[in-house]
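note to self: dont lose this again. the chain is below, predicted strucutre after it. 104 aa total, dont forget to put it in the shared folder this time
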Amino acid sequence: MNALLIILLTLVGAAGWLTVTTREPVRQAVVAGILGLLLGLLFFVLQAPDVAFSELVVGSAAVPAMLLLAIAKVREQQASAARADDQSEPPGAGISGSQGGEAD
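---
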């Protein structure tokens, strides 16, 4: 029992550290889901099955799913804004060099 507790505490610490240090939001949401799963297992080992079940549902499923949906929505909006900017750019706006009225 003590060995299992030590292993789970070490894994929870490592998963927490990985969650904080991960830069990409999608990977961070996945690692946060793994952290929720490990916390649920830890609570179960510590004989708190009601807390473990709540952590499994919320920490490893609901929160990562909401994060992934929010990330997808933000990326969709950024892509549509970029498309709108590309369409509203006047012709020749991205061309460099001398243009109208400049003397060489």
